[in-house]
Amino acid sequence: MNLQVENISIEIGKKQIVDDISLRVNSQQFVGILGPNGCGKSTLLKSIYKVLSPNKGYVKLGEMDVLKEKSKKIAKHLGVVGQFNEISFDFTVEQMVMMGRTPHKKLLDSEAKKDHEMVEQALKTVNLLAYKNRSFLTLSGGEKQRVILARVLAQEPKFLILDEPTNHLDVKYQIEIIKMVKQINIGTLAALHDLTLAGSYCDYLYLLKNGSVVTYGKPEEVLTKENIEFVFDVKCEIYQNPVTGHIGIAYL
Ligand SMILES: Nc1ncnc2c1ncn2[C@@H]1O[C@H](COP(=O)(O)OP(=O)(O)OP(=O)(O)O)[C@@H](O)[C@H]1O
Q1: What 3-state class would DSSP assign to 165?
Q2: In 3D, which of 130, 151, 38 has the Cα closest to residue 87?
Q3: What residue ranges in 110-180 does DSSP mark as E strands?
Q4: Residue 47 to residue 17: CA distance in whole angstroms
Q5: Residue ranges of the ABC transporter domain (predicted)?
Q6: What is the CA radius of gyration of the chain?
Q7: pLDDT band (50, 70, 90) for residue 252
Q8: How many domains does the chain have?
Q9: Structure ipTM
Q10: How far, rounded to the nearest angstrom, does the alpha carbon of residue 192 sit from its chain's CA centroid?
Q11: DSSP state of 213
Q12: Looking at residue 214, which CATH number applies to its domain?
């Protein structure tokens, strides 16, 4: 499924947080949003997954007008991994992942064989099957993040929104999660902080500053020393990593 975001502006308490942003993610593309803390990445993503109403603009997911469509219909197609995954009541890992099946069920539907199979498969993928009866609240930050990803996998989405999906994860799981998401091979829009990771795995990047898009394009077009200094206020040199062949960044 593809995503089209047109002229989104979001004002919160008279402050312009997102200023006329348009972007596109084609189906099967992995697109990254980069920018400093507070530049509006999460706020923009929230407006796409309907937690926040923009003041202006529209969002199309496939043929659906996201801002007008019912949340349940959107949830059948759109999976979201947010930045904070805290919950107040405790659930087991299995119950948390089963919640991903909710958009596919009718009112009072019980859990069918297929739901259990999907949950098991998703837990296997994130390497947490052995944790299925553990209490979610007792997990580490990285384990929680993987459970949330399993919940999204069980949801069988056609498009993914990820807000710093590698938060809390050690280097092994950072890479695994990104690879896993790429393997699902559906349109994905992800806010990321790690520029090297973004440069290695994203097909396309949008670079934000103060709520606006500064530039966009392929990683090698966006991750230049001039753009990085302008947006993040740090000096660096860009090189080709001799081992991976991807973009390397040496901060000065
Ligand atoms: N509900 C709110 N009320 C007031 N200000 C808000 C609200 N939500 C976001 N903001 C402000 O909007 C700006 C953008 O926040 P946002 O969370 O979108 O940034 P971000 O780019 O995702 O940052 P980070 O990289 O730190 O996660 C910040 O200055 C934040 O304080």
Answers
A1: coil
A2: 151
A3: 159-163
A4: 12
A5: 3-235
A6: 19
A7: very high
A8: 1
A9: 0.89
A10: 8
A11: E
A12: 3.40.50.300
Structure tokens at 135: 């209490």
Range of the domain at 136: 3-251
Read off the pTM: 0.92
Predicted confidence at residue 142, as pLDDT, reads 84
Query: Using a 6 Å cutoff on CB, does residue 43 contact ligand 1?
Result: yes
Nearest Cα residue to atom 27 of ligand 1: 37
For ligand 1, what atom is nearest to the CA of residue 46?
A: 18
Query: Measured between alpha carbons, how far is 10 from 141 in angstroms, rounded to an integer?
Result: 30
Per-residue pLDDT of 149-200, as tens digits, reads 999 999 999 999 999 988 778 898 888 888 888 888 999 999 999 999 999 9
Q: What tokens does 209 get? A: 């500053």
Coil, strand or helix: which one is 96?
A: helix
Most ligand 1 atoms within 8 A of CB, residue of 8, 9, 12, 17 to mutate: 17
pLDDT > 90 in the chain, percent: 75
Q: How many CA atoms lie within 13 A of 211 on its CB side?
A: 14
Question: CB-side exposure of 120: number of CA atoms within 13 Å?
Answer: 7
Ligand 1 atom nearest 45 alpha carbon: 18
Q: Which atom of ligand 1 is nearest to the CA of 39?
A: 21
Per-residue pLDDT tens for 50-84? 999 999 999 999 999 999 999 888 988 999 998 76
Atom 6 (ligand 1): residue with closest C-alpha? 12
Averaged pLDDT score across all residues of the chain? 92
CB of 51 sitting under 6 A from ligand 1: no
Pairing of strands 159-163, 78-81: parallel
Alpha carbon distances (Å) from 124 to 97, 130, 141, 143: 12, 9, 18, 13
